[in-house]
Amino acid sequence: MNAVADVPGLYISDIGAPGSPTLLQEHGITHVISLTNQKDRPLIPSELGIQHLHVKIEDNPLEDLLMSLEGMCAWIEAAFSCASGGHETTEARGCSGNRSKGDEIKPNSETASEVPDIVDSSAKAVCSRETRVLVHCVQGISRSGAIVVAYLMRLQSLDYDSALALAQNSRSVITPNSGFADQLRLWAQMEYSIYSRTDDNACEGLSPKLKPQYELWKSNRGILLSRGEEAKQRVMAKSMADMAAKFGQRRLQLKRKDNEDNLLTDTYKQ
Prior knowledge:
The chain has 270 residues and is α/β, with parallel strands linked by helices. It has a domain at 2-83 and 130-194: Protein tyrosine phosphatase superfamily (Protein-Tyrosine Phosphatase, Chain A), CATH 3.90.190. 48% of the residues lie in helices and 11% in strands. It is built from 8 helices and 8 strands. Strand 1 and strand 2 form a beta hairpin. The longest helix is centred in the C-terminal third of the chain and has 58 residues, at 212-269. The protein starts with a strand and ends with a helix. Residues 85-101 and 107-125 have low confidence and may be disordered.
């Protein structure tokens, strides 16, 4: 587990740390964000009183990380603001949340950018002590690294490369995959939000619109996904054809062997 030097109270690790109650207690962890698939989701004992947010996400360059970046960053901010004395829920601008301990969001769902409610009645004990937030994935390299970098970007108004360098000062192995890196660069261009928020929308109670840059990225991603699916289907079809050809060849070999055996038997009888 590594402390992020530029953000007191923020930590990053691989999957080993959240699986160790002793380690969590030694570091005084109060909040955990798990970035894994369902199979790798850690079980944190409820008696530790730790607020736990699980985000289902694969370490895949085509995962839509942008959809949930703002919500996760706001969740971390809400945790730290809780420790500073406020008991009100901090929400991502333009989205609302009403979740609590053991929350779960998916990066590709419509509610992915919502911020879970971390200050319900079960969380008041957490607010009474110093907040320490652990962000982890399986290896502590790509997924959790991307979120720590995103948080630094938004907190200090940094571009991707500057925030990455800061994060690597605390944990040298942090390396978001190529797709996450591209999305974080785009996030900086969009000023750390995929939403266009206008006074008219706010006054009329309308949902914020997605920015054109994100819409374009999502469209291009859809094309890549469809191409990938087509390629996978071609590989599968070729594999099945090869398998059928091998079975056919094997049947032919067995048939020839049977014919040869029958010929030898007939010759022996004569």
